[in-house]
Amino acid sequence: MEKSGIRIEDLHLSFGETTVLAGINMEILPGEFFAFLGPSGSGKSTLLRAIAGFGPAPRGRILIGDRDIADLPPWKRNVGMVFQSYALWPHLSVRQNVAFGLEERRLPKREIDSKVDAALELVGLLQLADRMPAQLSGGQQQRVALARTIAIEPQVLLLDEPLSNLDAALRVQMRRELLALQRKLGLTTIFVTHDQEEANTTSDRMAVLDGGVIQQIGTPQELYDTPANGFVAGFLGTANVLKGQVSDGHFLTIGGNRLPLACPRTGADRIVLRPQNVTLGPAGGEGIVGTVSHREFLGSSIRYLVDTADGQIIVDTLHSAGQTGQETGATVSLRVDSLNAPLLV
Ligand SMILES: Nc1ncnc2c1ncn2[C@@H]1O[C@H](COP(=O)(O)OP(=O)(O)OP(=O)(O)O)[C@@H](O)[C@H]1O
Question: Taking every annotated instance into account, which residue ranges of this chain make up the domain ABC transporter (predicted)?
Answer without folding.
Answer: 6-236
